Amino acid sequence: MQTEFDMTGKIALVSGASSGFGAFFSQILSECGCKVVMGARRIDRLHQLEEEIKSKGGCATAVALDVTDSKSVQNAFDFAENLYGTVNVVSNNAGVADTKSAYKIDEAGWDRVIDTNLKGVWLVAMEAGKRMMAAGVSGSIVNSGSILGIRVALFNSSYCASKAGVIHLTKSLALEWAHKNIRVNALCPGYFPTEMTSGYFDTAEGQEYIKTMPARRIGRLEELRVPFLLLASDAGSYINGAALPVDGAHSLGNMY
């Protein structure tokens, strides 16, 4: 396994790296030999993660990144290139939710979710793809989708729409860029203990919801390690345009 997922010498940019999946994937990429540039708006948290990774012998650097701002995205890639070279692995994670009835979502709330979850993924993926093609290098882009992009659930209309968009954007880019040896895939997690979900699952209502899941539990972050690395590393060199659910069969069962 260590040999299959060896990514020594690769240069990764991780968006949404200040918490949740982004922070976890930054650590994994570093452990597998990547030089990692970690981007997010909360730069203080990034510096903490940077020090943690370096203390374990990894190579990681923090950069301020707002995925909804094209100039910020360009600056982050410029920073990575000047420091390490062309980014050839992208972990696209920045995301927000607005959990409420559809008729209670206002225009500003809708725009916030779509701009972060879909436009942000598009801006980062496009910047990465253009630079890989200009440099003539192959690469892998892993977009964070969700099982709510595959099926819908109550009170998440803007989030579901954004993640469905991420999945189709992923497939479109995979089809267009395959001949350039740039793979684009979507990892579609079910529910895991992240900053976005932990508060709910600590409640009595959340605990009852867990009992309705096929696996009767939420996922452990460690269970995303191998699926993520399969898409990000050369081990999955013929996987392109996939939307891979990692959810304990949740998307096949009750999604209330």
The count of DSSP E runs of length 2 or more, i.e. the number of strands, is 7
Gross morphology:
globular
**Measured distance between first and last alpha carbons:** 37 Å
At CATH's second level, what is the architecture? 3-Layer(aba) Sandwich
Low-pLDDT windows of residues: none
- CA-based gyration radius: 17 Å
User: What is the H-and-E element order?
Assistant: EHEHEHEHEHEHHHE
Number of domains: 1
CATH class: Alpha Beta
Output the strand order for the largest sheet: 3-2-1-4-5-6-7
Provide the CATH topology: Rossmann fold
Q: Could you say which structural class the secondary elements and strand pairing correspond to?
A: alpha/beta
Query: Which whole number gives the mean pLDDT?
Result: 95
Strand content: 5-15%
- What summary fits the major beta sheet? 7 strands, parallel
At the fourth level of CATH, the homologous superfamily is NAD(P)-binding Rossmann-like Domain
- The helix count comes to 8
